[in-house]
Amino acid sequence: MFDNLSDKLDRAFKVLKGQGSITEINVAETMKEVRKALLDADVNYKTAKAFTDTVKEKALGMNVLTSVSPGQLMIKITNDELTALMGGQTEELELKQNPTIILIAGLNGAGKTTFSGKLANYLKTKKGKKPLLIAGDVYRPAAIEQLKVLGEQIDVPVFADLNSKDPIGIAQAGIAQAKQNGNNVIIIDTAGRLAIDEQMMNEIAAVKASTNPHEILFVVDSMTGQDAVNTAKAFNNRLDFTGAVLTKLDGDTRGGAALSIKSVVNKPIKFIGTGEKMDAIDVFYPDRMASRILGMGDVVSLVERAQMQFDEKEAAELQKKIRKNKFDFNDFLSQLNQIKKMGNIKDLMGMIPGVGKAMKDVDIDDNAFKGIEAIIQSMTNQERENPELINTSRRNRIAKGSGRDLTEVNRLLKQFEDMRKMMKMFSNPATAAKMMRNMP
Ligand code: GDP
C-alpha cells in the first residue's frame, strides 16, 4: 500500500539529513519534494499545495528540541498534518436508530456488493447487530446472486426480488421484512454504472428520498486516483453522502484518493477495504493511515516522547552552562535520566529510520548506562562539578566505589572532556559556522 509515495516522502526528508536546524531554506526544499511526492500519488494540486504550506508554517514556528533532529521533527509535523488532512478523528457509523438504514452507492466495480457483505459481517460480529441485506442492483442479476452467496457465507439474510426492476419497491419491501423479523440494521446495495450517469443518479436519489437512510456510504476504488475524487464530488453533490469507503487498498494504489477525498468533499472516510474476503474491512483511522503512508510511525512516537520530556527552562539553563563551560557530571547524569525516561535504549535506537533493522540482533543492554551512572554516583559532588579535580588517586577510589574497571572510569572522563569541548565550540555560533565550513 502506498509504497511509492512512502519511498518518495522518505527521500524528501533526506534533504534534512545532517542539518543542524530547521531553516526557511531547508524546509522549503523538503516541502518541494513532499509536494512532488503528493502530486505523483495523484493528490489534488490544491490539496498538495495547502498541505505543504501548512507543514512549512508549523515547522518554522516549532521549538527545536535538542533530543531530536530537524528531519525527525519534520516527519512528526508531516504526520500530524497528514492525519488532519484525512479527517483527524475516526468517524463512527451512526447506528442508534432501530432499524438503522444504510444506503450503499458508487460506480460499477467499485466494490459495493463486496463491501455490503463485509459491512453486514462487521456489524454482526463486531457490533452485535442483526443486519439484513437488500439486493437493489436490479440491472445485474449476477450482482443479486453475488449478494445472496455472500449472505450465506456470513449467515446474514438477503432480501431480493429477481422479478422486479423497481429499486424503490424492492427497498420498501426489504425494509418491511426487516421490521417484521427484527433486523436492526438494513444495508441497501444499489446499481452502479461504469461512469457518472444522470439516470443512475436520479434512481439512487429516488431510493434515498423514499428510504430516508441514516447513513449513505459512497464506495470508491482507491486505485482510480484523481477519478475517485471527481466521482466523489459528483455523488456528493447529488446524494450528500455521510461517508466514503475506499476499497482495494490492498492493491498497488498511489494513495491520492485517501489523501484528497476528505479535503475535497469534506466528508469522512469511514471504512477501507483491504481484500476480497468478508473480513477484509477496517474502520478508517486517519492517524494509523498517516503513519502507514510515511512508514515512520516510530520516529513519530520518538518525537512525541521527546516533546513530552522537553522542558524549555531547563534547556535554556543548560545552554547557559555549556556556554560558560560549566556543563558538569550532574548535568550529564540528569541528561542520561531524561533519555532513560524516554524508554529503553534499544527501543529508542530502533526508532531511528534505518537503524531499526540494523539493530535488530544487536544486544545493547541498558547496563551500559548503569555503569556510567555508578561511576558518576561514586564521585563527590565537588568532583562532579569540577571534573578537572579527578586525579589518579581519585580515579582509583571512584573505580573501587562503583565496582567498575579503572579503564572504564578513564574512558568516561576522557569522553566527558571531549564532549564538553565540542559543546563549548558549538555553543559559539561563529566557531560552529567556521567548523562547518571546514567540513568536507
Ligand atoms: P460493485 O460492482 O461495486 O458491486 O463491485 P463488486 O463488489 O462486485 O467488486 C468488484 C471486484 O472488486 C470484485 O472482483 C471484488 O472481489 C473486488 N473487490 C472488492 N473490494 C475489494 C478490496 O477491498 N480488495 C480487492 N483486492 N478486491 C476487491
Automatic annotation (TrEMBL):
Main location, first listed in the record: cytoplasm
Signal peptide range: none
Ligand binding (GTP): 106-113, 189-193, 247-250
Subcellular location: Cytoplasm
GO biological process: SRP-dependent cotranslational protein targeting to membrane
SRP54-type proteins GTP-binding domain boundaries: 268-281
Pfam families according to UniProt: SRP54, SRP54_N, SRP_SPB
Enzyme class: hydrolase
GO cellular component, one term: signal recognition particle
GO MF term set: 7S RNA binding; GTP binding; GTPase activity
PROSITE patterns membership: SRP54 (PS00300)
Keywords assigned: Cytoplasm, GTP-binding, Hydrolase, Nucleotide-binding, Ribonucleoprotein, RNA-binding, Signal recognition particle
EC number: 3.6.5.4
Subunit field text: Part of the signal recognition particle protein translocation system, which is composed of SRP and FtsY.
UniProt note: domains: Composed of three domains: the N-terminal N domain, which is responsible for interactions with the ribosome, the central G domain, which binds GTP, and the C-terminal M domain, which binds the RNA and the signal sequence of the RNC.
Protein name as annotated: Signal recognition particle protein
